[in-house]
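Narrative summary of target 7.
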Amino acid sequence: MICFITAGAAVKESGLPREELFITTKAMTTGYRATKLGIDNSLTEAGLDYFDLMLTHWPMQDDLGTYRALEEAYQACKLRSIGVSNFNRAQLGEIMANFQTVPVVDQIETCVLRQQTKLH
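Modeled conformation, tokenized:
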């Protein structure tokens, strides 16, 4: 994907030490196998050893499989932290009941005209 190639090139061209940058991305796939492959492909395309934060893109059918792939990548130091996007309390509870690694972020779109009260 072009954004990973561009991001990786920007990191290299910046001249800054990698440790001084915080790179966040989202898993664009769902399910264990697709997410596991997607993480590795994204890192390869970006030319990076790790991402600082990777989030699920949204709740889907196989949230547990998707999160398992994220947790394994976290344990393998490919991801420094992991999180979710737009999960409600019940969905967060399911993740927390099934995994050792707690999401560090639940990214929720919100603004004056779009208050996500159902997600709180």
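The chain has one domain: 2-119.
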